[in-house]
Amino acid sequence: MLAAMPPSPSPRPDLAAPPVRDRGDACPGALRLHSAADGGLARVRLPAGDLTADQAAALADAAERLGDGHLSLTSRGNVELRGLPADCGGQLAGLLTEAGLLPSARHERIRNILASPLAGLDTNTPSDVRLWARSLDALLCASEPAAALSGRFLFVLDDGRGDVAGLGGDVTLLAESGRTAPPEAGYAPGAASGHGALLRVGDDPAALRIAADDVPRAALTAAETFLAVAAAGGSGAWRVRELPAEAPLTAEQVRNALRAAGIAAEYAEVPGPPPAARFADAAAPGTVEGPDGRHALVVLAPLGRLSAAQWRLLTAAAADGRGALRLTPWRGICVPGLTAEAAAGRTRELAAAGLITDPESVWRRVTACTGLPGCAKSLTDVRGDAAAALDGGSAVPAGGTAVPAGLPVHWSGCARRCGHPHGAWIDVLATPDGYRTTVVRPGAPIGPAVSRETARPDSVSRETSGPAVVSRETPGPGTVPRETPSTVSRETSASPAAPGSLSTPQPTTPRPQ
User: Fold this and answer.
1) Bridging pattern class, strands 332-338 and 113-115
2) Quick check: 478 and 434 in contact, CB under 8 A?
3) 172 with 252, same domain?
4) What is the DSSP string of 170-217?
5) Distance from C-alpha of 92 to C-alpha of 75, rounded to nearest angstrom
6) Tens digit of pLDDT for each residue in 57-102?
7) Per-residue pLDDT at 279
8) Which among 190, 169, 183, 76 is positioned nearest to 126, based on CA atoms?
9) Does residue 143 sit in helix, strand or coil?
10) What is the pTM of this model?
11) Boundary of a domain, candidates 360, 393, 410
């Protein structure tokens, strides 16, 4: 295990300049696997994080029959399977197609739709944006131009509570529900009320008001407008934020495209987009009672990874409710439609199986990249190190200085920091001299090749992160150098990946508190 290291200031390059993309993105999918050190990696897109119980069972089957027997949750509410052999492409595609998880092979990597996980399940907001998500998914899969979107392009549908609107969407729609956010959030969704949504593109603060019935079409039109702008500018941009300053995508361009498509869109006089949801507000473990008296049970996966056995317990719990699961962008799983008695019983069962059911658990704060042996770019087994620290009651490496309470903590095996949180967070970074701990706050880039979007359990290349400034809060003395393994190339082929040379990681059973 790497030790904490003393303060050692190092320059961090400014990543504000948009990259020039001269190739397609290398994001894995269900049909295009990535070659990781522990074998092939498949990412299965789940628009709005929605799964039927039968689909969930199919994923468990795939993990056991073809992979390493585990399922990883991503920060976009998707699922990843690891340890896949080189010749499993046809079998995996067949399993997913039969389960209804591959409605369009051509579009499977672009079905990146985040939605408020508790939409329609509690009394906070009346808008169930997941209906919009289903319609948008169908429109995406039927659109010829949309097939050209990057696997990193992200749609976000927020039901008005502001929980996902700050998670870096390329096209973000925020339902206007008439609910006002807490004053400290500095943001009031639906302050003027209405029965539609506010549409924004990238970081543009301008908002367009869209009627509810037009929301899915408006989202698709905005994405297709981005493709046209990117093609005209010749930047090859994968995301809205990557467009050059001299040829951006503006709200006015989107408004004109919407009008041409017969969709009414007017500028809305509202505050700017919300920040990333405060960690304490992000779909905490526990139960939520809905307007129908039924309960939604939310649990988290320790470090975002579940065994197939744990996953099957969740599938069984779904049968007590609506026969469905919802995945959250905070590596959680929501089981809707339970009676109070069933929710209490399933909570005890899932806690005994090692899942996080206590909102005060220290495990809730912590995420980690894959690390060794799954990712050859990592300097150490960060997941094992994080679990050891957590078992000792600490979210950061032992021997370090105090860090602010309440912020999420992310452990990274290299400077890419794959899967780090949005907003303010604590960065635990492995270096050849030990772990360096810093506090990251919104404002400026944090370092080279920083991940913004994907699962912690992932060794895939990432786009650079959004704004963040580092305020160094470095732990105390004690260093243990570690040899850096050779890196693996980044897979761009559409063919299934060959297994890597390192062994598959052994299953871990953290003990959430």
Assistant:
1) unpaired
2) yes
3) yes
4) SEEEEE--SPPPPGGGT--TTTT--SEEEEEETT----EEEEGGGHHH
5) 23
6) 999 999 999 999 999 999 999 999 999 998 999 999 999 999 999 9
7) 61
8) 190
9) coil
10) 0.82
11) 360
75: tokens are: 């920060």
Using CB atoms within 10 A of its CB, is residue 55 exposed (0-12), middle (13-18) or buried (19+)?
buried
Range of the domain at 300: 48-98+282-360
Tell me the pLDDT tens digit for each residue of 311-354.
999 999 999 999 999 999 999 999 999 999 999 999 999 999 99
β-pairing, 39-44 with 34-36? antiparallel
CATH number at residue 390: 3.30.413.10
Answer yes or no: are the C-beta atoms of 462 and 242 closer than 8 Å: no
175 with 250, same domain: the answer is yes
CB 127 within 8 A of CB 160: yes
> What residues does 437 pair with on adjacent strands?
428
At 28-53, the pLDDT tens digits run 999 999 999 999 999 999 999 999 99
CA 189 to chain centre: 22
Q: Where are the alpha helices (DSSP H) in 408-510?
A: none
Kindly report, residue by residue over 427-475, the tens digit of the pLDDT.
999 999 999 999 998 764 555 433 333 333 333 333 323 323 333 333 3
The set of residues, in sequence order, having a beta carbon less than 8 Å from that of 262 and lying 6+ positions away, is: none
Same domain, 129 and 229: yes
Sign of CA dihedral 427, 428, 430, 433: positive
Find, among 382, 426, 418, the residue nearest to 401 by Cα. 426
Residue among 84, 74, 70 nearest 34 (CA): 84
The pLDDT of residue 242: 95
From the CA atom positions of the chain, what is the Rg in Å? 22
Average pLDDT on 359-387 reads: 94
Is residue 66 in a domain? yes
Q: Give the separation between CA 352 and CA 262, rounded to whole angstroms.
A: 54
**Which amino acid, residue 411?**
W
For residue 361, what pLDDT is reported? 93
- For residues 274 and 401, membership in a common domain is answered with no
Q: How far apart are CA 240 and CA 257, in angstroms?
A: 16
Residue 284 contacts residue 314 (beta carbons within 8 Å): no
Question: Are 347 and 414 within one domain?
Answer: no
- Beta strands at 469-472 and 409-412: parallel, antiparallel or unpaired: unpaired
Assess whether 311 and 424 both reside in one domain: no
What strands, in cross-sheet order, belong to the sheet with 196-201? Answer: 113-115, 155-158, 171-175, 196-201, 208-211, 266-267
Which amino acid, residue 7? Answer: P
pLDDT band at 3 (very low <50, low <70, confident <90, very high): low
Instruction: Return the closest-CA partner of residue 376 out of 41, 28, 37, 34.
Output: 37
Measured in residues, the chain has a length of 513
pLDDT tens digits, 226-267: 999 999 999 899 999 999 999 999 999 999 999 999 999 999
Q: Is the pLDDT of residue 381 over 60?
A: yes
Whether the predicted pLDDT of 478 surpasses 80: no
